Amino acid sequence: MKLAKRVSALTPSTTLAITAKAKEMKDQGIDVIGLGAGEPDFNTPVEIIEEAYSAMLKGQTKYTPSNGLPALRKTICDKLLKDQGLTYSPGEVVVTNGAKHALYTLFQAILDPGNEVIIPTPYWVSYPEQVILAEGVPVFIEGYEHQQFKVTPEQIEAAITENTKAIIINSPSNPTGMIYNEQELKAIGEICLKHDVLIVSDEIYEKLVYDGAKHVSIASLSPELKEQTIIINGVSKSHSMTGWRIGYAVGNKEIINAMTNLASHSTSNPTTMAQIATIKAYELGDGPVEEMRVAFEDRLNKTYERLISIPGFSCVKPNGAFYLFPNVTEAAKMAGYQNVDEFSTELLEKANVAVIPGSGFGSPDNIRLSYATSQVQLDKALERIEQFMKASILS
Question: Which stretches does DSSP call E strand in 69-190?
Fold first, then answer.
């Protein structure tokens, strides 16, 4: 049977491919350390779990409105007002089956064939694929390492054409962990307003910031930028609720209504008890979030110093998310490999350490390592990488 062109052109997720290979090796009894995880290693706070269980016992197991429970949408509005000083109505919120689904539905709602979406590199692996699925065209601009992987207003303006519909800003970033500051966002925002480019602001890692860094939503910088921005967020990273699949989009009511209509014919609604649990997550405040953030910051500081001491590894220190994104081109050459993809494969097969090659993020010189695992495992993994390098150089 011939498949549709839209799926035939898709590139498999590099992250999932490496994770599957690592799991296969583990199932064979091999002691693999996985540094590919895109989720916190903490369990969901018990109060949230208990809230969902209680809701199920009370019979709250039925359909909800396609855009989510009114109480949850109100809670999201309250959260945005408290955290960012942003005022939205529940009608400007759609709750989705994870932030990934919010992005997918948004692109389906706003893109016509040939519409362009500017995507800074390095990028999260699903951005270009989702644009392509909506018959849009990804336009890549490079966030250079010497610029902390950030793009400039000049780069953005040079990439804008009559077909440009949107730009994606992911801050804090997956995979680099970089954060745009207020001045940088203002400058980007001016270009987007000048050319009427919709800003898709992916803020899923907003709570995971370090070394005194501050997350700023571009929508909070002016009323005009608020109207020009769709915020994407959720509780997957902030509350360690990846499997609960609750995300949301907030912004222009016409776009949100279109997303809601699309959801009504595709997913009906996000899982009811997971929505109720999300209300509880936001009612708890930042206590559980801060506990996890502090642990990640401690791991970052310890792991970063050890990582950059490994021969051939260089790394811009991130101040958000839970990833390190070192440049390993020199390490790959020193170890006798042609490219970073080959280096990453050999690292898994010979050192039993799973990392994600940067080619999947549009950055073939780098690898992504997640420190969303215990410090014991991180130390063990770095020791293996160091021994792998020493053995490769000697041979």
Answer: 93-96, 116-121, 137-142, 164-170
